[in-house]
Amino acid sequence: MNVRHGLQAVLCSKRIKLICVFFVIAASLGVSSSDALPNTVVRVEPSASSVAVGGVFSMNVMVADVENLYGLEIILTWNSSVLRLINVELWLGQYGGVLNNPIYIVENSSQQNKYALSATSVPSASPFNGTGNIVCMNFSVASVGTCTLDLQTQLYDYPPLDRDPRLSFPIPHTDIDGSFNAPISELSTLGQVLALAALICVTAFSISNKKKRSNTNVPAHRRYTRQNLLRCQKAT
Asked: What digits encode the pLDDT tens for the residues 66-96?
């Protein structure tokens, strides 16, 4: 369910009486709509990271320079063979986060390679303006490789009093993906070199033993004859 439809469902649902009075309270707030700033972005932070296999990687999804924000959706996908999701920490309604309380969470779910969040403020909340974190995500690094932290988002405004019908509109913004790299560690490379050297030594030792066994299989009288022949050749 997306936030836009979620807002409509929340505002009309008989099961959520508080939300049903949205229009009455909204009219009393008298908040006017404003367009997004030209540089409104939703981005993965940090934008590029590198952690060795076995380590833990943390990242934020944050929105910067937004005005009149009342609802949002995010979908983040990644390569599950490289990264495995440990947990998710929501920053909604918190200091340093986004959206003002009270907040209704439409969806907050994760899969092996995907995370989805949909949420909206509800009456009596005021719109959010500024910059803040949406969510913090912690991953374990499962294997060597690279992957894109592919981010897709929607931002929704608080509808002005003169908008008919009173529905939230998308806020123009730019999504900025992140990238992750799990390099081959120096210890891993050294281990591979040592393993190769050990294999070479074992192979050489095995070949040497085969030659010795091959020589001992020659009959004694033939070995002595050969030794005598070599002595004669040296004497002459």
From this structure: 999 999 999 999 999 999 999 999 999 999 9
Angle at 43 between CA 181 and CA 3, to 5 degrees: 125
Domain map (residue ranges) of the chain: 3-184, 187-235
Question: What predicted TM-score, i.e. pTM, was given to this entire model?
Answer: 0.67
Residue 61 CB neighbours (<10 A): 25
Contact between 57 and 138 under an 8 Å Cβ cutoff? The reply is yes
What's the topology of domain 3-184? Answer: Immunoglobulin-like (2.60.40)
